[in-house]
Amino acid sequence: MKGRHIRIIGAGLAGSEAAWQCAKRGVPVELCEMRPLRSTPAHQSADFAELVCSNSLKSESPNTAPWLLKEEMRRAGSLLLEIAAACAVPAGHALAVDRAAFGAVVTDKISRAPLVSVRRMEVAEINQEEITIIASGPLTSEGLSQTIADLSGSSGLYFYDSISPIVDAESIDYSKVYLAARYGKGSADYINCPMSKPEYDRFSDALVAAESVESKGWEKLNYFEGCLPIEEIARRGRETLRFGPMKPVGLPDPRTGELPYAVVQLRQENMRADSYNLVGFQNHLKFAEQARILRLIPGLENARFLRFGQIHRNTYINSPSLLNWTLQMKTWPQIFFAGQICGVEGYVESIATGMLAGIYAAALVLGQVLLPPPRPTALGSLLHYITHAEPTKFQPANITFDLLPPLAPKIRDRQRRHEAQCDLALRELETWLVQSCRGQEPPNHTAHVSRAS
To answer: CA–CA separation, 328 vs 420, rounded Å?
Structure first.
């Protein structure tokens, strides 16, 4: 198979990372992206790797599951995590990025990479004999969705995901808010809007009674439990918001020294700090309703919203029944899947599967042995879940320690157990990297990514 190229459908997080991994191993890539010729309900630009929901790539606290997955990917040579670090904005203990800068840098790096040929076109047909990585994302076009369904013998699965609102920083009343990071982790980079019980009750009542966007007759709102709309959370019980996105624990008001009854957190959206997103406030409300209700939040009475929350459809396949651990289709091994369409949830998880699909597709072209990431690693455990879960109960997943195999002997203390799991994972990863993963940089390319301005 030497000398063949790889076709990648979709230049999102997974497709962009996959293209880089193939190219740096000397394998030519045709990267197909339908935007801007055809956009989606959620995307706002034609840039590669656009972040449409939030700008956070989750925790950077050592010995957490999100940190472990990112650390493994950094050691394996993920380009997008390198770019994320260069485009980072203050976010306490989390890795958050200026999403416009991030997309622009990814687009530039991938477009300039030797061996990567970018084609702005919609792909609706798949050649089963051509090595292809399908990384078309959760908003896969109808034509390609039907082709995938025909290929897999399934009508497909889907759930609904949400987008959080963004507010103009100049419109925030800073006399009513304070800066803090939950539990003091990282620097005090979050704007916190404290609520008293009467303020919380009024806000909660307004949410429950709010008018939602009407769904189409054929749609069934099947939300991903890790990303519920705030009005759906509010309808599940009076106190659910206080134990979810509005949890005040670890956020004492420095002006009083006391915990507020509830807190709404705002996270910096870009490097200029001229906009903030409402953390965990994705919703399915009409825009006028959002403006009215969100202005009940202390400090946001006169807020100017740069973007309102939305719901969008996420399409994914039943990976346990369709894919093997290399992300290849069992019936059509020339075809790989990567990103949210293969059943992972989250930005980093999508990049991770793109990285692995790129590694494996390149190995297939080069006639190399494909080796799975060790099961104790976050990468190996994520692959194991999406290819070994019970097909009838399969739901997209983020990386958690629950996906990793238990230690033997068992360690009862949670912190020590997580430290031991991370130590083991990183040791196992290094062995795997030596055996199978390290590729060369693309010819005439320097891997260093300067910080975006």
So the answer is: 32
Reply yes or no on whether the pLDDT at 53 is more than 80: no
171 and 289 within one domain: yes
The domain that holds 293 is classified in CATH as: 2.40.30.260
- pTM for the model: 0.74
Q: Is residue 446 part of a domain?
A: no
Q: What are the beta bridge partners of residue 167? A: 276, 305
Residue 282 near residue 229, CB atoms below 8 Å: yes
79 vs 446: CA distance, rounded Å: 12
Q: How far apart are CA 62 and CA 68, in angstroms?
A: 7
192-231 pLDDT per residue, tens: 999 999 999 999 999 999 988 765 443 445 555 666 789 9
Q: Is residue 99 part of a domain?
A: yes
**Same domain (yes/no): 227, 261:** yes
DSSP of 159-223, one letter per residue? EEEEE--EEEGGGS-GGG-EEE-GGG-SSS-EEEEEE-HHHHHHHHHHHHHPPBPPPPTT----B
**Domain carrying residue 276:** 163-312
Query: Which of these ranges, 75-79, 274-278, 333-337, has the smallest mean pLDDT?
Result: 274-278
Paired with 323 in beta bridges are: 329
What percent of the chain has a predicted confidence (pLDDT) above 90? 62
Q: Distance between the two ends of the chain, CA-based, in angstroms? A: 42
Q: Report CA torsion sign: 448, 53, 14, 422.
A: positive
Please report, as a single letter, which amino acid is at residue 29.
V
The per-residue pLDDT for range 105-116, each reduced to its tens digit, is 999 999 999 999
